[in-house]
Amino acid sequence: MAEAELWSQYGGDKELVAGVVDVKGRSIETPEVIAGRIRTVLRHCAPEKLWLAPDCGFSQTPRWVGVKKLEALVRAAALVREELS
Description:
Blueprint: H1 6-10, E1 16-21, H2 31-42, E2 50-54, H3 63-84
Parallel strand pairs: 1-2
C-alpha cells in the first residue's frame, strides 16, 4: 500500500490488481480494514480499472484462514461498492 500513489503517475489506462489482503499473517483482517486499503487504492485508480486480490498466493496459508480472508475481502468490496453507488 505504501506505493499506491505511483499508480497515478505510471498506471495510465492499464488495469490494476491490488493486493489488499495480507496472506503472511494468520490474523483475519476485518472487512473495514480491507475496505480502507481499497479506498487508498481508489485515490489513485479508477474503480472500473481496479481488481482486488490477496497480496500473494495462499499456498502457505491454512485453508480455513484463506477462506476467512477471502470472505472478508468480498464483504469489503461490497462496502466500498455501496459507497461508490
